[in-house]
Amino acid sequence: MSIPIPSRQLFIDGEWREPVNRKRLSVINPSTEEVIGDIPSATSEDVDLAVDAARRALSRNKGKDWSCASGATRGKYLRAIAAKITERKPVLAKLEALDCGKPLDEAAWDIDDVAGCFEYYAELAEGLDAKQKTPVSLPMETFKSHVLKEPIGVVGLITPWNYPLLMATWKVAPALAAGCAAILKPSELASVTCLELGEVCREVGLPPGVLNILTGLGTEAGAPLACHPHVDKVAFTGSSATGSKVMASAAQLVKPVSMELGGKSPIVVFEDTDLDKAAEWTIFGCFWTNGQICSATSRLLVHESIAEAFCQRLVSWSKNIKISDPLEEGCRLGPVVSGGQYEKIKQFISNAKTEGATILCGGNRPQHMKKGFFIEPTIITDVTTSMQIWREEVFGPVLCVKTFSTEEEAVELANDTHYGLGAAVISNDLERCERMTKAFKAGIVWVNCSQPCFCQAPWGGIKSSGFGRELGEWGLENYLSVKQVTQYISDEPWGWYTAPSKM
């Protein structure tokens, strides 16, 4: 059963505020193509208000309310947010499914992960207290030194539409744990649950201005946030093209950035594996979240001796996927997020066919879905390394397939990309898996699986997939500044210069 989309304003300084221009953007259900609500459309004037609120939050009561409060104090707020998220899980999961089209079971899993992430960073916040004044070993006994870890300041967090609340949480939770004040700018294509996070923060009494949430277009709200002179850092997840623009804006002020960008990740399947196990992980790695995953293992490299049998197995598994309205029980593939994304994916498939590839299965709208941005799970074979489908990120349920004959060839093909986010290997030979793990040029490697993600483990890529790591302790470090404090402790004068009295 569908639920109404709450009508929210911008969340600034702990309050709901109408955008300065009073404009709003339509929320479209990708399953029905119908307008089901709207969200506020922020502009640079609203960004200014949010940044001012964040700076006040950092300095209020000489920082004792937040930035200089104990990690344990901040941890209590994060745990309270986690509890509220869990309490609201049924509603939040349905809102997520309605807004971005992911199956309800996936959305529910995401909401569990949101709560778990806030809990995890609450624990890390508490642990920060014990790590302050960590001593540094020095070679001179006349000095002692220690390190302070301080919040980096006001941070701009720009997040995507494929995991709306979860990707926001990957940034919000560690930023708040570190003692920063944040301005969250989610994608205009899926912002509903991020606005609900504002209501959660209001209910738990998070100090005003610690978290501000601005919805709206990237050009009108995201760009002014990235280049704002009083934003101390920008963390961005999205396309490589947009990430490059964010970096260019931040570079004008020598502002630190962390980037989690696109991918075209390989999955390498060797001949010694169980075909059904490998097939399920292969389609999960590419079709999960309707294929809209930056780390999707969308380039299948399969050993030539099993290629034909394995591809037929993949087709059988793919045709068994339930495609339906995301709220329907058992749905495993919903619509892609928007009409624009739908057309883009269809063009990728058409181009692949024009270039000489074979559409082994899928590629069309499911016959039983008359409306909505639905695309069948698509498997493309006879792919060459020069084809667009091999080189560019599709961000949809499209898997391209190429064969290999030797381990060396598999490595070369796997690394034949300017991206470097994820990579997977499927084989019963664990020594070979270890060799592949070391040979992959990627920030994340999966062995005999694809796409598992845990908030305790680092997440991020290399090359055009970005830099910096989210999640785990590495995610917290993103929002901390390290200060060296060194003290001269000898009673003797330094003695480098001759004292005036002795001249």
Task: Furnish the topology, listing elements before pairings.
Layout: E1 10-12, E2 15-17, E3 24-29, E4 34-40, H1 44-59, H2 71-87, H3 89-100, H4 104-131, E5 134-136, E6 143-151, E7 154-158, H5 164-178, E8 181-185, H6 192-204, E9 211-213, H7 218-226, E10 233-237, H8 240-251, E11 257-260, E12 266-269, H9 275-287, E13 299-303, H10 307-319, H11 339-354, E14 358-361, E15 378-381, H12 388-391, E16 398-404, H13 407-414, E17 422-426, H14 430-439, E18 444-447, E19 466-467, H15 472-477, E20 480-488
Parallel strand pairs: 7-8, 7-10, 8-9, 10-11, 12-13, 12-17, 13-16, 15-16, 17-18
Antiparallel strand pairs: 1-2, 3-4, 5-6, 6-20, 11-19, 14-15
Helix pairs in contact: 1-7, 2-4, 2-5, 2-6, 3-4, 4-5, 9-10
Model description:
The protein is of the alpha/beta class. The protein has helices at about 45-60, 70-85, 90-100, 105-130, 165-180, 190-205, 220-225, 240-250, 275-285, 305-320, 340-355, 390, 405-415, 430-440, 470-475; strands spanning about 10, 15, 25-30, 35-40, 135, 145-150, 155-160, 180-185, 210-215, 235, 255-260, 265-270, 300-305, 360, 380, 400-405, 420-425, 445, 465, 480-490. It has a seven-stranded mixed sheet with strand order 14-15-16-13-12-17-18, sandwiched between helices. The radius of gyration is 25 Å and the shape is globular. The mean pLDDT is about 95.
